[in-house]
Design brief:
heterodimer; A: alpha/beta; 11-stranded mixed beta sheet; 10-stranded mixed beta sheet; 12 helices; B: alpha/beta; 12 strands; about 30% strand
Chain lengths: ~475, ~250
């Protein structure tokens, strides 16, 4: 055991890889939140009045709401007046091409392994890069445009496609939904927008890369994806942040809208700064993600690999409104040191013959706490609904915690629901078996954990599965118990 | 001399299990270690492989002239020690192919060799699969998960073939095998024998030694080698049981 502890020590001293900070000149709002700040943000973005009104309505509602306390996470109270709500890297007013982007910015994304210069682009992946509060570059726009696909920053969509934004903004996650969604609705600064027209299969992965750079800022991005009848899109988001001693708030909202026969696949590799090994610093990640299977035979699939953040509060959900619609949730959540994660999903079955599938794999190490929280709700109308849930927990060491909170509400007797749960520990005999074959302890843990999470990792687009595997290994290096 | 064990003593917790083992193994030799249950056979195998639960309290083990206890378990494997487990471990979600690819390349890395590319690895694998009559579909499945007893042991020998160890220790490889499986496993081991490697066969029964014929047989009792001989000794044990050994040991 003593040797294991030593390895654990070594691992916990492992530095966060993306913890550098770039000196980008920023255009910032003063600290704090008020109606004036909401107006300031809206004015900065030259928004139409209806959107300002929408923000103000959200702000007034938020003021009356209380921060939720039901999650299994503990943190000192957030001072919402001590946060900067808008920060933009300074650059020329409007960009016509990537050559006008600040070279420091391009370097920033290259450090992340995400190239936004099209000469060195990832093959077959279109990227929208969001730094602090604004989108700085979107690649492949013209290629996608030929198919009628709209993929751009949220701000641009407000200008170029106001009818779509006005119709769908808040249609899946209303401003009243929860405290953090209301906050986001009031102060969101940018994000990605995507529309796939009728019958179009998006030929490449769409991807947004988020990075918080400036100090004391919160990031409040908003993503809206609409798949029209028979359309298909696979979307990936990734994120990193510099190492800072103070906690930073990230409260995003993602809305997915799938019409008849449409399919949206949404994958996340979340690698926000988790704080140091003593639990200092790190991102507070309070995110609302929801997909609406509006049309019959529509499908929404969430895949997430959560390795970062000091606190994760996140429940990517599906509302299965259309008959025969289908929702999926595949998750790997890894916590180490003092990280806390409370994550899971909601599957709301409204339509007939709707199906949902939940596969959640929690991995806890160090002194972390990892909770799965999930709800399966079969409404009265939803005859012949089916759900399958599998929630597995893997413990490493004896100071961490794994918790499972499954809720099942059934209002229709024809429903069929299956729930499986397991808790296991990485066995010393498994490690020894690997060692005896010449595989060192770190590689052994990586191998075993990736095997454990395989069912979820297999859901990721190829380009990112490898990245996710490495990230898992890096997060857990040497963490054996 | 490939392996030289002198006065090896080891315990688990407070329980002393090995009480001074002396054993010399040369390249090209096959040694059988027999003995009644609880005599310390598997402990000896585990101590050589470096399992952490055991504490070596006395003695010395040289492997190709180097002090074995200076090496971590994974480095011992890379130096050429292979243990075929009595109870092979299951690793869900990791195929034998993936597992072996990691192992082969880690060992190559230790030896300063470049990793095998996918094609070269597949070629090596195909060649070794034939030796142990193992099917590729089995190797694509999660390691040992849902394998029958025979499949697990055959998989161990397949891994042994892949890693080409200098010293192989087979820990009760015959346990739980029917006669057909036993023959396949033994054939695998025999075809891997050469003048450059050595094998230690740990077994309770003589049966396996009909197929893997040893050059030397040692009887372990209460953590000591109490009798050594040739393959005839194994036959004698089979006929007479272990009681006469126990009685002889008691007289000393």
């Amino acid at each position: 055991m003593s040797k294991d502890n030593q390895v654990l020590e070594e691992f916990t001293s492992k530095e966060y890889e993306h913890g550098w900070n770039v000196n980008l000149e920023a255009d910032e709002a003063p600290k704090g939140l008020s109606e004036d700040i909401v107006r300031f943000i809206s004015a900065k973005k030259n928004e139409p009045t209806w959107l300002l009104d929408w923000r103000l309505k959200a702000f007034r509602l938020w003021e009356k709401m209380k921060e939720p306390t039901w999650a299994n996470v503990h943190y000192s109270k957030i001072n919402y007046q001590d946060i900067i709500y808008y920060s933009a890297p300074k650059q020329k007013k409007s960009l016509t091409g990537l050559d006008e982007v600040d070279p420091e910015l391009i370097k920033t994304f290259e450090k992340l392994g995400i190239s936004i210069t099209e000469q060195k682009r990832l093959t077959g992946v279109a990227v929208d890069a969001v730094i602090d509060s604004v989108s700085v570059a979107t690649t492949f726009k013209s290629t996608l445009g030929e198919l009628g696909i709209i993929f751009c920053s949220f701000s641009e969509a407000v200008k170029e496609h106001p009818e779509l934004i006005r119709k769908y903004l808040g249609s899946v996650v209303p401003i009243t939904d929860n405290y953090f969604a209301a906050l986001n609705s009031a102060v969101f600064s940018d994000g990605s927008f995507c529309y796939i027209p009728k019958g179009v299969r998006c030929p490449m992965e769409l991807s947004t890369y988020f990075r918080i750079n400036a100090a004391n800022t919160g990031q409040f991005e908003r993503t809206l994806i609409i798949a029209d009848e028979g359309a298909y899109v696979s979307y990936l988001e990734g994120c990193t942040a510099p190492m800072r001693d103070e906690n930073q708030l990230h409260a995003a909202v993602v809305e997915l809208y799938a019409m008849k026969d449409a399919e949206i696949k949404y994958s996340t590799v979340q690698n926000w700064y988790p704080g140091d090994k003593n639990g200092k610093g790190g991102i507070y990640n309070f995110v609302t993600k929801r997909g609406l299977c509006f049309g019959d035979h529509s499908k929404i699939s969430w895949t997430q690999v959560e390795t970062g953040s000091a606190i994760t509060w996140k429940y990517p959900s599906c509302i299965l409104k259309g008959d025969y619609s289908m929702g999926e949730f595949y998750s790997v959540a890894v916590t180490n040191n003092y990280q806390q994660a409370d994550t899971g999903t909601k599957m709301i079955h409204i339509g007939k013959n709707t199906k949902s599938r939940i596969v959640s794999k929690g991995i806890s190490a160090g002194k972390s706490q990892n909770s799965y929280r999930g709800q399966v709700h079969i409404m009265k109308r939803a005859s012949n609904a089916r759900n399958f849930s599998q929630c597995d927990s893997l413990l490493m060491g004896d100071q961490c915690g794994a918790h499972t909170f499954p809720y099942i509400d059934v209002e229709n007797q024809t429903a069929r629901i299956e729930h499986e749960a397991t808790t296991s520990k990485i066995g010393e005999d498994q490690i020894f078996y690997c060692l005896q074959r010449g595989i060192d302890e770190e590689a052994a843990v990586a191998l075993i954990v990736n095997g454990y999470a395989k069912e979820v990792l297999n859901q990721l687009p190829m380009e990112f599965a490898v990245e996710a595997q490495k990230l898992l290994a890096l997060t857990l290096e040497g963490s054996v118990g | 001399m490939m392996l030289s064990i002198k006065n090896l003593q080891a315990k688990i917790g407070k329980k002393q299990i090995l009480n001074g083992i002396d054993l010399q193994v040369n390249a090209g030799e096959v040694h059988a270690i027999m003995g009644p249950n609880g005599s310390g056979k598997s402990t000896l195998a585990s101590v050589l492989a470096g399992r952490e639960d055991y504490e070596v309290t006395e003695g010395e083990v040289l492997f190709n002239g180097k002090n074995l206890f200076d090496f971590e378990p994974s480095d011992r494997a890379a130096e050429g020690i292979f243990l075929a487990f009595q109870y092979p471990v299951e690793i869900p979600g990791v195929s034998t192919i993936n597992f072996m690819k990691t192992a082969v390349n880690k060992i190559r890395q230790y030896r300063g060799q470049s990793p095998l590319d996918a094609v070269a690895f597949l070629q090596l694998m195909k060649e070794k699969m034939k030796l142990v009559e193992i099917d590729q579909s089995l190797l694509s499945r999660s390691l040992n998960e849902g394998f029958s007893g025979g499949e697990k042991k055959r998989n161990e020998i397949f891994q042994m073939a892949m890693l080409e160890p200098k010293l192989s220790i087979l820990d009760e490889t015959d346990s739980g095998l029917d006669i057909d499986a036993l023959k396949i496993v033994a054939n695998g081991v025999n075809s891997l024998r050469s003048k450059n490697n050595a094998t230690i066969v740990v077994t309770h029964y003589q049966r396996l030694l009909d197929y893997i014929v040893p050059d030397f047989v040692h009887v372990l009792y209460k953590g000591k080698i109490v009798k050594s001989g040739t393959k005839e000794l194994a036959k004698e044990l089979e006929a007479k049981g272990y009681d006469w050994i126990k009685n002889e040991a008691a007289l000393v």
